């Protein structure tokens, strides 16, 4: 990982980024110069981990205070629109509605591998150690093992629920639950598309359009719990310090906490009437929670530890159309919208948001965002996937002015 970060810095230094002037290209090839791709990955990490300080690299004077955002690459190759993103060690993973997953190798952002399995689109990706978990429209979760010792770097290792888990439960009628359209399924199975995944403390959480939240143990891939969480489809999930936040089309963001062996409802946050929540993120060490809605608004709540509740601290009209995705990096929040733009917001001490700038370039709605935890100069890397079938890479300055 350290060599990857250093190569990013060195390659930035070798490029004449100042020549980009003030015009943003709509189509470009990677500006991260190509380098030797040898060397094994030194392990994978989840995207919410902070790197050691020595891995933070510096960029040249071209990326200094006052610089606006930079379009570094437009990557194509997906069959369908890009639906989700994840960072896996030296790789950036992007998946699409065409059920294909592409691994792009940093820092040159070349296509390293393409893999996929199952029916329907890939809805969500998370990484745990040397494994990648992908959620699919066919209501299955697939587990991919990442190994440099094999020609097939991303190898399908399991499908959830596993055959072992299934056969342990299918004989008992008490293990079946009623689903819509008068169908019966095992409680360990999702009955509709799995729309989102979250990971925390050796557990994978999956949210589905079937309105349930399921809990999977990473160690043996067993389904430990199924929660009838919402009255409509679950669109977003995030887990942080023992709390799980689920965002739903029923207009509620619910907070779940594990009590003994089961999860119980800890709190509920609601937005405006008839608004569907499409995304949810947690910031500032769990103190702040933000949701992106179908009305184009971003709302935020601050956790009141004394009263064990959450109070509304932010309500901004972020976009003209629905907010489809959110991500955070330090004191910044980024929002992707159906209006084809990415909003960059600065966080105030009290949790309020103010607009730093807008990034444009996608030719379709922005479906997913992922920010890299590694610093590059006085900014950070932002990856965005859209319905235009492209993955775009941006450098975003941490300076709170002059972004546009």
Oligomer: single chain
- Poorly predicted runs are 1-6, 12-66
- Our measurement of the CA-to-CA distance between the termini, rounded to an integer number of angstroms, reads 31 Å
Per CATH, what is the topology? Methylamine Dehydrogenase, Chain H
Would you write up a description of this structure?
There is one protein chain. The chain has 404 residues and is mainly beta. It has a single domain (2-14, 28-397), classed as YVTN repeat-like/Quinoprotein amine dehydrogenase (Methylamine Dehydrogenase, Chain H). The chain is 5% helix and 50% strand. It has helices spanning 2-14, 163-169, and strands at residues 70-75, 82-88, 91-96, 101-105, 110-115, 122-128, 131-136, 141-146, 154-160, 176-179, 183-186, 194-200, 203-208, 212-217, 223-228, 234-240, 243-248, 252-259, 262-270, 277-283, 288-293, 297-304, 309-317, 323-329, 332-337, 341-347, 353-360, 366-376, 379-386, 391-397. It has a four-stranded antiparallel beta sheet, covered by helices on one side. The chain has a four-stranded antiparallel beta sheet with strand order 2-3-4-5, with no helix packed on it. Strand 4 and strand 5 form a beta hairpin. It is globular and about 60 Å long. Residues 1-6 and 12-66 have low confidence and may be disordered.
């Amino acid at each position: 990982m350290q060599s990857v970060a250093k190569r990013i810095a060195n390659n930035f230094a070798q490029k004449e980024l100042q020549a980009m002037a003030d015009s943003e290209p709509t189509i470009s090839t990677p500006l991260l110069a190509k380098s030797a791709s040898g060397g094994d990955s030194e392990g994978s990490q989840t995207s919410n981990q902070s790197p050691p300080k020595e891995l933070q690299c510096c960029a040249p004077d071209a990326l200094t205070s006052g610089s606006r955002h930079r379009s570094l690459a437009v990557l194509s190759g997906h069959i369908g629109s890009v639906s989700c993103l994840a960072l896996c060690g030296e790789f950036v993973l992007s998946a699409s509605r065409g059920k294909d997953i592409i691994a792009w190798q940093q820092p040159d952002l070349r296509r390293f591998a393409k893999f996929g399995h199952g029916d329907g689109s890939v809805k969500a990706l998370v990484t745990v150690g040397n494994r990648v978990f992908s959620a699919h429209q066919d209501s299955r979760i697939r587990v991919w093992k990442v190994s440099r010792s094999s020609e097939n770097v991303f190898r399908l290792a399991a499908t959830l629920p596993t055959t072992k888990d299934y056969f342990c439960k299918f004989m008992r009628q008490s293990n079946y639950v009623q689903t819509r359209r008068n169908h019966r399924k095992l409680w360990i199975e999702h009955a509709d598309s799995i729309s989102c995944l979250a990971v925390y403390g050796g557990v994978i959480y999956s949210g589905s359009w079937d309105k349930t939240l399921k809990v999977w143990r990473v160690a043996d891939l067993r389904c430990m719990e199924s929660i009838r969480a919402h009255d409509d489809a679950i669109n977003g999930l995030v887990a942080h310090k023992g709390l799980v936040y689920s965002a739903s089309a029923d207009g509620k963001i619910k907070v779940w906490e594990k009590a003994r062996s089961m999860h119980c409802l800890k709190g509920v946050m609601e937005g405006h009437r008839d608004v569907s929540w499409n995304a949810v993120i947690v910031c500032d060490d769990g103190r702040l929670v933000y949701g992106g809605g179908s009305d184009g608004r971003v709302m935020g709540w601050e956790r009141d530890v004394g009263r064990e509740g959450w109070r509304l601290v932010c309500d901004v009209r972020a976009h003209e159309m629905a907010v489809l995705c959110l991500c955070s990096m330090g004191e910044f929040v980024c929002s992707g919208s159906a209006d084809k733009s990415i909003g960059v917001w600065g966080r105030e001490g009290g949790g309020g948001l103010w607009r730093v700038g807008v990034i444009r370039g996608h030719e379709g709605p922005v479906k997913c965002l992922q920010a890299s935890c590694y610093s590059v100069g006085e900014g950070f890397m932002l990856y965005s996937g859209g319905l235009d079938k492209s993955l775009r890479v941006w450098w975003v300055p941490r300076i709170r002015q002059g972004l546009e």
